[in-house]
Specification:
Elements lengths: L6 H29 L4 H25 L9
Helix pairs in contact: 1-2
C-alpha cells in the first residue's frame, strides 16, 4: 500500500533528510580530519563519503530553496 502525503508532510520529510545528511557530512569531515595523520587511505575514504553527503545537501537545498546554489562547481 502506498502512503499519500500532503505537501507539508513532504516538506517535513525533506527537511529531516537534509538535517540527517548535514549531520553525516559533519561526522565524515571530522573522521577524515582525525584519520589524516595516521591513516591516509581511511582519511580519503572518509573524504569521499563527506563529498557524497555534500552532493545530497546541494540537491536537497535546491528542492527546499531553488537557486540557493546557482553557481555550479
Amino acid at each position: 500500500m502506498t502512503d499519500v502525503v500532503d505537501a507539508d508532510e513532504l516538506l517535513r520529510r525533506i527537511q529531516r533528510g537534509r538535517a540527517c545528511a548535514e549531520q553525516e557530512e559533519r561526522a565524515w569531515r571530522t573522521r577524515s580530519e582525525e584519520l589524516e595523520p595516521t591513516d591516509p587511505a581511511g582519511a580519503r575514504e572518509a573524504a569521499v563519503r563527506r563529498l557524497t553527503y555534500e552532493a545530497v545537501l546541494r540537491v536537497l537545498d535546491e528542492i527546499l530553496t531553488p537557486g540557493r546554489h546557482s553557481e555550479v562547481g
